[in-house]
Design a protein that fits this description.
- By secondary structure, this protein is of the alpha/beta class.
- It has one domain: Spore Coat Polysaccharide Biosynthesis Protein SpsA, Chain A, CATH 3.90.550.
């Protein structure tokens, strides 16, 4: 059995994806790691970057999407891609890494050991910093510090208000054929992690927090779905059309 499966979602962020995949490759975890990359129809150098890492992990899978321009706006692409990847995951544990985020080197080792010593829980999350970066990866500001402890107040926050737990920090058991699918409802398009956590809580599965900073979430200025939303997607599509990178009208 593989120890950890990491689902990586990407769309047209080749130079940021390099950092994300390198951060998985550079983990000090000595167990086995599977990476499932979900490329949602990238037309930049993303496919080339994906190929560069094909021999870097115990197991490597690629899931390709090809949505229409309309589907990019009217469907929850991140949740759809994750749900395609889940059946491929062979790891005892599953975690997630968007194309613009980075794991710290000890992240997978620490979270694996945490879950192994907390056998009563289904899912754990850790603390992380969110920073705002420019297109050239320069830090231009800190978005927010995600350091919620797990208690009844946090549980209430998740169930009733937009939550402050990012899916980069999630680490949960693999239920194999009975995995919880991510919510593809458009209400959770910009907050897919919230939709997933609500389903976990509704099933009365146990959660916990490992209060350590183990990842950095990077929000690209003007190109972050949860900050800039559909305007960002629309601008990206228009730019690709102007550069003749899309063949469809």
């Amino acid at each position: 059995m593989i120890d950890i499966s990491v689902i990586v979602t990407v769309w047209n962020r080749a130079k940021f994806l390099v950092d994300a995949l390198e951060s998985i490759k550079n983990q000090d975890f000595e167990g086995s790691t599977q990476v499932v990359v979900c490329d949602d129809g990238s037309v930049d150098e993303t496919p080339s970057v994906i190929e560069q890492f094909r021999d870097s992990f115990t197991m490597y899978n690629v899931v390709n999407g090809n949505p229409t321009d309309e589907e990019r706006i009217t469907t929850s692409r991140c949740a759809i891609q994750i749900n395609k990847a889940l059946p491929l995951c062979q790891g005892k544990y599953i975690c997630y890494l968007p194309d613009d985020d980075i794991y710290l080197p000890q992240r997978n080792r620490v979270m694996f050991n945490f879950m192994e010593s907390h056998l009563d829980i289904f899912l754990a999350y850790h603390w992380m910093k969110l920073i705002l970066i420019s297109e050239d990866k320069a830090v231009v500001g800190q978005a927010v510090d995600l350091c919620e402890v797990w208690d009844e107040a946090t549980k209430y926050w998740i169930k009733n208000i937009y939550n402050r737990i990012d899916h980069t920090s999630l680490f949960h058991r693999n239920l194999f054929k009975n995995n919880i699918l991510w919510n593809e409802d458009l209400n959770y398009k910009r907050c897919v992690d919230w939709g997933f956590l609500l389903k976990v809580l509704d099933l009365e599965l146990q959660l916990d927090c490992n209060p350590m900073y183990l990842a950095v979430g990077r929000k690209i200025q003007g190109k972050s779905l949860n900050i800039d939303g559909d305007r960002m997607i629309g601008n990206t599509i228009r730019n690709m059309k102007n550069e003749n990178l899309l063949c469809r009208c």
